[in-house]
């Protein structure tokens, strides 16, 4: 049995198929079929999607037969095309994207930068740590209205909110990744005559990278939630704004357009980050792919 | 062997650690001479300072007083003449076997092509041909220690400092690795200073065994092991081997009992004070 690298935050993710591989249920035929299907994950995914579509349509036509409350997929697609042709959809998407990219980008720069400073200096760490713990525990969303008051109804207040919701997992994972470095690895480098700089570039940074990427993955979902909620508090444009105004106008299909785009953006960004995680920490994931 | 020049020597090596207001004396006045190509083991009770002694020799920590010299020249930081083999394999999990082995030359900025040939040679010597592109997690504990050894050898050191390198391995693998280590030392003519808990390991591998006292670690006795080389497992069943093991065990037991007695006394003392 292969040994795994210990203290891996990424292992906490539910995505690892290790359970299935290590404890195959049943015997003989059944086992082979179960494993065969699980290796070809697309089958289940497709079936699952088809089932969801059927359930959705069934609900829309027979269970909740009121267009104000629920929309069949057809009318959602139709509404999406209309909004696109008006140029409205692209505009909302662009505004939300700018808010997301600005806030998340800032969170990456500040999170990693401050994380490095925390790991390097005990003074900086002691000075800032109580505030970090406090802000991390505070539901930043609750400060949303305050940011709208301070920074106005435009993009900058949204960037601030997204930044604050996203920065802490990145910061904390960077600090953990840089400080958790196995003592032995540092000793090995030192015994081979490595300078402090080399210990950083060859041991600490590569050791911390998987943690930082895991932090990014945790943050990206929070950042997306930040975008929606920030726009709900008051905005002139954006997908959250689209959702909010559509609800007020009883334009339910348009509301679903906004929600579905957010869902797709969420899945896409988390998948991208998971792929990056695998790329940067291949040594951690290989053992589960047997 | 006894006429070989002295490779490594320490004189009155002392180390004290400060823990708050208290000072803990870990190593006291250890003076040893290791001849070129000699295999020396250091044994002693747990916490006797033998690992600290090894770290002092490698320059990972600096002595409170005393000197270390290599090839007759006193050194502050031994550097490239010595390589440390740690108990945990200490392989970088994000590097392949080959890149791990090349870590020493990489740190010192050696020539890539030259060190590549050296690394491949030593990987072959430790019996790991064909694993260049494997990652550490794909290897067994024994194989990882082989890579660890190949890395130390590739670093180009004359002296290997080994800190319980086989302690984390199972009994069978450990026995195999002991044999491998003897073969590798014979072929490369390296000088070895090995710290171990296992008395039979020390006797089996060494030319001399140094027994340390309990803390502070001092040199209690030096035992010459004159078993003929090359040695195989059969040597472990000889009367002489048993005598050596028994003698060393008695020395260590004496130390442990003495320190336990002291601890009991001091525990009783604090009890009375309360």
In short:
Chain A has 290 residues and is an all-alpha fold. Chain A is built from 13 helices and no strands. The radius of gyration of chain A is 23 Å and the shape is globular.
Quaternary structure state of the chains depicted: heterodimer
CATH homologous superfamily annotation of chain B: P-loop containing nucleotide triphosphate hydrolases
Largest interface (CB < 8 Å): A-B, 26 and 25 residues
CATH topology of chain B: Rossmann fold
Specify the helix fraction band of chain A.
over 70%
CATH class annotation of chain B? Alpha Beta
The dominant shape of chain A is: globular
Describe the fold and architecture.
The complex is a heterodimer of chains A (290) and B (274). Chain A contains 13 helices and no strands. Chain A has 290 residues and is mostly helical. In chain A, α5 (88-120) packs antiparallel against α6 and α11 (239-248) packs antiparallel against α12. The longest helix of chain A has 37 residues, at 196-232. Chain A is globular and about 75 Å long. Chain A starts with 17 loop residues before the first helix and ends in a 5-residue tail after the last helix. The model of chain A is unreliable at 1-27 and 286-290 (pLDDT under 50). With 274 residues, chain B is of the alpha/beta class. Chain B has a single domain, classed as Rossmann fold (3-Layer(aba) Sandwich). Chain B is 39% helix and 24% strand. Chain B has helices spanning 50-58, 97-101, 103-108, 112-125, 141-154, 171-188, 199-205, 239-273; strands at 6-19, 22-35, 39-43, 65-70, 73-75, 82-85, 159-163, 191-195, 208-212, 219-224. A 6-stranded mixed β-sheet of chain B has the order 6-7-8-3-9-10, with helices on both faces. In chain B, strands 2-1-4-5 form a 4-stranded antiparallel β-sheet, with helices on one face. Chains A and B meet through α9, α10 and α13 of A and β6 and α3 of B.
């Amino acid at each position: 049995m292969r040994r795994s690298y210990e203290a891996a935050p990424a292992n906490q993710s539910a995505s690892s198929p290790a359970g299935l591989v290590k404890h195959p249920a049943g015997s003989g035929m059944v086992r082979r079929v179960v494993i065969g299907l699980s290796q070809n994950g697309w089958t289940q995914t497709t079936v699952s999607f088809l089932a969801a579509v059927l359930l959705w349509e069934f609900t829309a036509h027979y269970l909740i037969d009121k267009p104000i409350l629920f929309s069949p997929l057809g009318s959602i697609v139709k509404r999406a095309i209309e909004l696109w042709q008006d140029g409205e959809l692209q505009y909302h998407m662009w505004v939300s994207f700018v808010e997301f990219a600005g806030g998340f980008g800032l969170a990456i720069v500040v999170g990693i930068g401050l994380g490095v400073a925390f790991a390097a200096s005990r003074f900086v760490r002691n000075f800032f740590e109580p505030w970090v713990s406090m802000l991390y525990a505070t539901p930043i969303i609750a400060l949303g209205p305050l940011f709208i008051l301070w920074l106005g109804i435009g993009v900058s207040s949204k960037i601030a909110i997204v930044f604050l919701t996203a920065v802490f997992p990145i910061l904390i994972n960077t600090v953990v990744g840089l400080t958790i470095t196995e003592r032995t690895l540092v000793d090995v480098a030192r015994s081979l005559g490595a300078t402090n700089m080399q210990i950083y570039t060859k041991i600490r940074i590569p050791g911390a990278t998987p943690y930082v990427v895991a932090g990014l993955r945790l943050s990206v979902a929070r950042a997306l939630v930040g975008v929606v909620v920030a726009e709900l508090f008051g905005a002139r444009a954006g997908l959250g704004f689209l959702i909010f105004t559509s609800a007020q106008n009883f334009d339910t299909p348009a509301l679903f357009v906004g929600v579905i785009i957010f869902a797709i953006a969420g899945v896409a960004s988390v998948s991208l980050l998971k792929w990056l995680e695998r790329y940067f920490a291949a040594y951690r994931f290989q053992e589960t792919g047997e | 062997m006894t006429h070989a020049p002295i490779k490594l020597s320490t004189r009155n090596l002392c180390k004290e650690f400060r823990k708050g207001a208290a000072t803990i004396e870990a190593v006291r006045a250890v003076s040893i001479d290791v001849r070129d190509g000699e295999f020396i083991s250091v044994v002693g009770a747990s916490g006797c300072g033998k690992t600290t002694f090894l770290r002092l020799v490698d320059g990972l920590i600096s002595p409170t007083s005393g000197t270390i010299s290599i090839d007759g020249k006193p050194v502050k930081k031994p550097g490239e003449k010595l390589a440390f083999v740690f108990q945990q394999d200490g392989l970088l999990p994000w590097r392949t076997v080959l890149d791990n082995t090349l870590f020493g030359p990489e740190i010192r900025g050696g020539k890539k092509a030259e060190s590549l040939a050296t690394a491949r040679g030593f990987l072959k010597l430790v019996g790991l041909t064909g694993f260049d592109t494997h990652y550490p997690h794909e290897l067994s504990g024994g194989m990882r220690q082989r890579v660890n050894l190949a890395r130390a050898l590739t670093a180009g050191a004359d002296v290997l400092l080994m800190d319980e390198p086989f302690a984390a391995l199972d009994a069978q693998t450990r026995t195999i690795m002991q044999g491998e280590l003897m073969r590798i030392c014979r072929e490369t003519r390296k000088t070895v200073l090995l710290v171990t808990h296992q008395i039979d390991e020390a006797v089996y591998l060494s030319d001399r065994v140094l027994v340390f006292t309990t803390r502070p670690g001092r040199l209690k006795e030096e035992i010459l092991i004159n078993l003929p080389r090359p040695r195989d497992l059969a040597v472990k069943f000889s009367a002489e081997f048993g005598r050596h093991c028994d003698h060393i065990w008695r020395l260590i037991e004496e130390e442990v009992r003495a320190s336990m007695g002291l601890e009991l006394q001091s525990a009783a003392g604090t009890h009375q004070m309360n």
